[in-house]
Write a structure and sequence with these properties.
Strand content: under 5%
Number of strands: 0
Low-confidence stretches: none
Largest sheet: none
Structural class: mainly alpha
Number of helices: 4
Radius of gyration: 16 Å
């Protein structure tokens, strides 16, 4: 069985593929795009693992509960 890849390794590989696919075209808004693409699944999984407990999820993420709630609203993840 092979070793699982780290999140960093997966992100690096996907970024290299992204730039290769751009074929020399300059990207725009890359930082904001990546933050949004990573933030939504992060919040979704943490909320699921915490049993939808926002206080627990906020603690795990190192966020203020109000900040977490704002981000959940932004990503349409409130249930």
């Amino acid at each position: 069985m092979s070793e699982p890849q780290s999140i960093e390794h997966c992100i690096r590989g996907n970024l290299e593929t992204y730039f290769r696919d751009l074929d020399g075209t300059d990207p725009t808004g890359l930082y904001d795009m990546l933050v949004k693409l990573v933030e939504k699944p992060l919040l979704d999984v943490v909320m699921s693992q915490s049993g939808q407990n926002q206080s627990r999820a906020a603690e795990w993420l190192g966020l203020n509960r109000n900040t977490l709630r704002k981000k959940l609203l932004e990503h349409d993840l409130l249930k």
